[in-house]
Amino acid sequence: MRHGERMTKVATAGVVVALLATLAVPAAALALPGLGRLALGGALRAAGGGGGVSTAAGAGAAVQAAVDARAERLKARIVAVLQARKARFDTASTLVGERITLVGTIADKVAAAGGDVTQVRSDLDQAQQHLSSAKELEAQAVSAFQAIPQQQDKLAAFVQARGIGRQAVNELLQSRIHVLSAVRELRAQVGQLKANAQAGGGAGPASAGGAAAGGGSAQP
User: Fold this and answer.
1) How far is CA 163 from CA 53, 128, 146, in A?
2) What are phi and psi of 158, to 5 degrees?
3) 207 is a domain residue
4) Cα Rg, the chain, nearest whole Å
5) N or C end of the chain: smaller count of CB under 10 Å?
6) What is the pLDDT of residue 53?
7) How far apart are CA 194 and CA 10, in angstroms?
8) 218 touches 211 (CB < 8 A)
9) Domain total in the chain
10) More confident residue, 87 or 57
């Protein structure tokens, strides 16, 4: 009976080790594009970035048309940059979310084999919290960027939106950090399970000691 339990644990540990090899979350996947001043700075200046766009009392229709055209170009530039950012952010957040699920599945297997996954589950809970926060902040950042053309002080609005976007990226990175921490803890638990299985030798502590002392065989 004990021999069968030991073999089951060794087999489970082998499966877990194989699964752990699939958990690498490449840092490059989280290198999200920032919406820095270089991305929108030219468009902001063209639209009167530092402050509100106001038409002088004597300005003609041509001047107003030029102002309107600049504002439309700014909107188009923001849309283009946000589309690129969304693609990268969605890919990275989806990847982290999938890793959270996968690590949780492996943690269940390790727990079934006798491993202690308390810290693993704690890390995964924190990873999920950071991931949810990242998604919420990213949505806020998108709204803030989209509102820039309507703001009087466009540069100030841009700086604020960029700050929110950076918070979103940081939250996503924190989520990744906790996932990797969970993976490291799982590896340690798998190593412990394997060591325990090898040390057990198929016998209980007392019978193993008796066999070593008297040359007898251990009873199952």
Assistant:
1) 23, 22, 14
2) -65, -45
3) no
4) 29
5) N
6) 45
7) 6
8) yes
9) 1
10) 87
Distance CA 186, CA 188 (A): 5
**Cα gap 126→177, rounded to integer Å:** 10
> Does residue 9 sit within a domain?
yes
Spatial separation of the C-alpha atoms in residues 182 and 123, rounded to whole Å? 6
Structure tokens at 211: 């066999």
| Model pLDDT, residue 51 | 47
Block residue for tokens 């803030």? 144
Which range of residues forms the domain containing residue 126? 2-201
pTM: predicted TM-score of the whole model, two decimal places:
0.68
Pinpoint the alpha helices (H) of 53-153.
Answer: 61-112, 118-146
In this structure, is residue 217 part of a structural domain? Answer: no
Instruction: Provide the pLDDT for residue 139.
Output: 94
Helix then strand then coil, in percent of the chain rounded to 5, is: 80, 0, 20
Average pLDDT score, the chain:
74
Find all residues with CB under 8 Å of 199, minimum gap 6, and list them: none
